[in-house]
């Protein structure tokens, strides 16, 4: 099984609980260019869906797997679908977890969820978006509130989520 994480820019770590499936098949965690254990080149022209799809195919080929079970999560569902369209003969099965098939729809949905946050958090997010400064402590606290409500409600977070 080859996993494709969300983000973009979020490494595979939060998917590591899927290692439990390794008694049935190998589980491969792919970090897209620019995050996790992958290279971080400054050339942003490299960060394209077509390149990510080509990387997935190169990885599958290098591992000598004739077919793969593909798991895409969030933004990774876009890459999984693009891969399956280009290389359908290599996809044995595909799971789309929390699909983000439309970024504009995803953003609209996230903005709707943001409206349920505390007034302080909404104000901090608005300030950060206007100023471009996402390093402020109040913004980080707002993101934590959002993540705690909508990304992972487990307390405490597991090590792979914290990473």
Give an overview of the whole structure.
With 163 residues, the protein is α/β, with parallel strands linked by helices. It is 42% helix and 12% strand. The chain is built from 6 helices and 4 strands; from the N terminus they run ββαβαβαααα. The chain has a 4-stranded parallel β-sheet with strand order 2-1-3-4, covered by helices on one side. β3 (68-73), α2 and β4 form a beta-alpha-beta unit.
Proportion in β-strands: 5-15%
Count of runs of 4 or more consecutive helical residues: 6
**Residue share in helix:** 40-55%
Rg computed from alpha carbons, rounded to a whole number of angstroms: 17 Å
Task: Enumerate the strands of the largest sheet in spatial order, edge to edge or round the barrel.
Answer: 2-1-3-4
SSE topology sketch:
Layout lengths: L1 E3 L23 E3 L18 H14 L5 E6 L1 H12 L4 E7 L5 H12 L4 H13 L5 H14 L8 H4 L1
Parallel strand pairs: 1-2, 1-3, 3-4
Helix pairs in contact: 1-2, 4-5
Short description:
The protein is of the alpha/beta class and 163 residues long.
List keywords for this structure.
163 residues; alpha/beta; four-stranded parallel β-sheet; 6 helices; 4 strands
